[in-house]
């Protein structure tokens, strides 16, 4: 005697009748379970009898059930717009039902000629996992887009003010990392079976958002080159004049003048304290990346489907942000250093240092202005990047010192005796960064100051010796081959100052306050005696 039960068509009609209910999702899950139960009954009760008429009675039955539920599922998936727990429940129920139906079909057709292949072809996959994956990708995109929008909005309002927290980094960075942590928590709370497969999409999106934050944190700050002054043309002052110039020339780079105390207004987003906060912020983000990676590993360990991936060494790195932080810290160190040297302290370098009487325009004022700047950096910048920031400032200061000597404009002229004063000033500048052993390591200072140290001996070399060195360097260079017969070519300015660079030697001659240098420059290049 047959057991009375609803037919597949009746099951579908019952689902249709409930489709208008407020919560249709559970209906699809219930329907999947009912059809699974129906398939088991079909296999156990009816198929053994029906095999008398059809060798694949169970297979045909479950293929029909598969098709009927598939039609309902297709309509359900077409109407999905977002990922909800109910949606995932239905899709997981559909996936389980499909696997059960396929197993029954395979078992029933194992002895058939084609092993049940033709029957399986009549059961196109539901692709429930793909549907889940697509919804998760939409969820990820929405979260990432929301975070990018947040970065755009909040960094426009960020003031980069020190003192907002104990470690002097931007509050927006703390908030951003909190949002990322909550996003990761929400992702691992999704009731889905493929966290490891979809996690790369999420981490890549978060990585790009972090990279965007880092990029915006350093944008608009300028660069090393934007603060470097243009070199003035080579010329001469009148030798023998009590005044080394007829009238005071206009500043070499008026747009680079800074305030007299070497510090900017506290509200200036590009002031020294604010640049220090930007540096700290990038260092903070870089340090927190490791914690984010540890958090991901911990979450994965709690996901059963991820155990095999963890065993195989699955790793998720925020490589874009890591590289952006590394480059950004270097960029901000250099930018801060060259802004301080050539903008904030430009008035000392160009308008004061070695102008007029060398003995009364020495480096002391520059040292006094540098001291509080070093204190600001030491007191504000995180210890892990502090030495990098101070080293960059040291290199910029040495560059500025050398530029004054080699490209300080026609207001400056040096005698061989002045070289002793300049070398003493240079030692004082080095000592400032050594700070009696409390500053930078001596080997680091030696390395950064090597270029200045190599050039300074030219200042005490006799003019005749400089002229002979210059001629020899020109003769050994490629430029001499293209020069007109009997004339020395003008060497190219490379900015790589060296005693073996013809342009460097020529500049020392141009600023040499001595008759022999004047005659040589006038005869060789027609450089004027006076402005």
TrEMBL record:
This is MHD2 domain-containing protein. Residues 1-26, 248-269 are annotated as: Disordered. It comes from the Eukaryota. The keyword Coiled coil applies. The keyword Lyase does not apply. Residues 360-470 form the MHD2 domain. Gene3D superfamilies: 1.10.357.50.
């Amino acid at each position: 005697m047959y057991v009375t039960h609803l037919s597949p068509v009746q099951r579908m009609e019952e689902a249709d009748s409930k489709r208008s209910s407020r919560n249709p999702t559970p209906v699809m899950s219930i329907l999947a379970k009912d059809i699974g139960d129906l398939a088991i009954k079909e296999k156990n009760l009816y198929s053994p009898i029906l095999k008398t008429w059809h060798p694949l009675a169970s297979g045909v039955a479950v293929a029909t059930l598969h098709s009927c539920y598939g039609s309902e599922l297709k309509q359900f998936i077409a109407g999905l717009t977002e990922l909800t727990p109910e949606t995932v429940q239905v899709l997981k129920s559909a996936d389980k039902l499909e696997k059960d139906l396929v197993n029954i079909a395979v078992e029933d057709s194992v002895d058939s000629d084609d092993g049940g292949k033709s029957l399986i072809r009549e059961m196109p996959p539901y692709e429930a996992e793909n549907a889940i994956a697509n919804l998760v990708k939409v969820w990820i995109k929405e979260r990432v887009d929301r975070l990018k929008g947040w970065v755009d909005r909040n960094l426009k309002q960020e003031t980069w003010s020190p003192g907002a927290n104990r470690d002097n980094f931007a509050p927006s960075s703390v908030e951003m990392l909190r949002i990322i942590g909550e996003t990761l928590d929400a992702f691992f709370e999704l009731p889905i079976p493929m966290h490891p497969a979809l996690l790369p999409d999420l981490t890549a999106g978060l990585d790009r958002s972090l990279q965007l934050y880092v990029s915006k944190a350093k944008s608009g700050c300028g660069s090393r080159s934007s603060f470097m002054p243009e070199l003035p043309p080579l010329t001469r002052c009148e030798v023998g004049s009590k005044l080394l110039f007829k009238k005071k020339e206009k500043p070499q780079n008026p747009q680079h003048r800074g305030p007299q105390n070497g510090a900017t207004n506290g509200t200036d987003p590009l002031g020294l304290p604010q640049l220090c906060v930007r540096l700290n912020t990038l260092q903070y983000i870089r340090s927190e990346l490791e914690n984010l990676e540890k958090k991901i590993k911990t979450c994965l360990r709690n996901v059963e489907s991820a155990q095999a991936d963890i065993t195989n060494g699955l790793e998720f790195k925020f490589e874009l942000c890591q590289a952006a932080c590394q480059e950004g810290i270097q960029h901000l160190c250099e930018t801060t250093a060259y802004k301080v040297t050539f903008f904030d302290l430009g008035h000392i370098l160009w308008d004061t240092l070695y102008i007029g009487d060398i003995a009364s325009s020495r480096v002391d004022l520059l040292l006094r202005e540098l001291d509080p700047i070093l204190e600001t950096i030491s007191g504000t910048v995180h210890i892990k990047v502090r030495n990098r920031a101070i080293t960059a400032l040291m290199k910029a200061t040495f560059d500025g010192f050398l530029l004054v000597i080699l490209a300080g404009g026609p207001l400056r002229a040096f005698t061989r005796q002045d070289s002793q004063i300049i070398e003493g000033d240079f030692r004082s500048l080095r000592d400032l960064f050594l700070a009696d052993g409390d500053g930078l390591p001596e080997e680091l200072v030696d390395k950064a100051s090597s270029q200045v140290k190599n050039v300074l001996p030219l200042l005490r070399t006799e003019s005749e010796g400089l002229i002979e060195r210059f001629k020899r360097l020109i003769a050994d260079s490629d430029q001499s081959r293209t020069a007109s017969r009997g004339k020395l070519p003008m060497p190219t300015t490379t900015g790589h100052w060296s005693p073996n660079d013809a342009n460097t030697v020529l500049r020392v001659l141009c600023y040499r306050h001595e008759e022999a240098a004047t005659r040589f420059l006038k005869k060789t290049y027609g450089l004027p005696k006076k402005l």
